[in-house]
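Sequence of Inhibitor of Bruton tyrosine kinase (Magallana gigas).
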Amino acid sequence: MPVTFDPECGPKCRSKNHAYELVSAITKGNLAEVQAFAKLCHAPGHHNDMFGRSALHMAASCGKVEIVEWLIEEKGGDLTLKDAESGWTALHRAMFYGQLATVRLLVQYNSDLYTRDHLGLSPLDLAMKDRPPYVSYDKADLCDVYTWGDNINLTLGHGKEQRRGHPEVIDEFRKKAIQVKEVVLCKYHSVFLTVDGQVYTCGHGQGGRLGHGDEQTYTVPKLVETLRDQVCVQVVASRDHTVFLMKEQVSNLNHPEINIVIVSCSDAATVCLTTRGDIYVLHEYQCRKIASKWQDIQEIYVSGGNLDHMSDLEVLREKGGEELRIVLLNSTGKNLRK
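Predicted 3D structure, token representation.
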């Protein structure tokens, strides 16, 4: 497409012709061609087409990594700009079209992984929602664990305290071919559950929260040795404690006939669901049954709870805690509050 001069082109060019020509250069050309076009426009890279798509949107959709980086570095490409059609950022578009190299680059430039589109979907949601029907996943497949973000409390499992600005694989699992199916990250520690029911933890061990029989700090995930010969089916954790639900349950809640199927916890409380549909709350040094015969419960969420007023001051939260709230999700998708 020949480049045309447009009287609408100025310091804040809003020429639709230039917008279409730039899109054509991005989708069909390379970085050199796009840069050549940019010399003929006062404000290249700041145009939007009739659907509200910017040059950065189109480059991300096409997986043109060099053009994406050039637009960000040289032309001030806006990572937060959403198109008019779907409310997608450049990261949404790169994720939807499977441009993984572009996704990685955008994440390195701190593009938001959790910003929502018009349907309330984040870029990560698109990666899961728009899986082609011929692509299937199996929990038995080999998998790696990636973590990133602040690492001041050594919860990422990389062995060093440095912050990770983009996803990095945990080498401890990769080099031993350990497959992880569930991860729980808390403020001071992390818990990893493998496909064969083994539990690994890392982070600060104050109070014995890691389960290693000491209060040491572990920078990489370490196997909880006391559970080596048992199979764990679920792990939950909060700031100061960790709960393991084992396949073979000898005695639960001081009642041998009770069999727990789901557990959940907050900083100050633990909630258990039994096979009979009974719900127990462990809170303030008491074990109380709060519901019976709720056998269609699929998930439990709990927050708040009050800590013992006799605890040390450094353990107590501000004002001693919060109101205990429990949310139950049943098989029909209905939320039930307690």
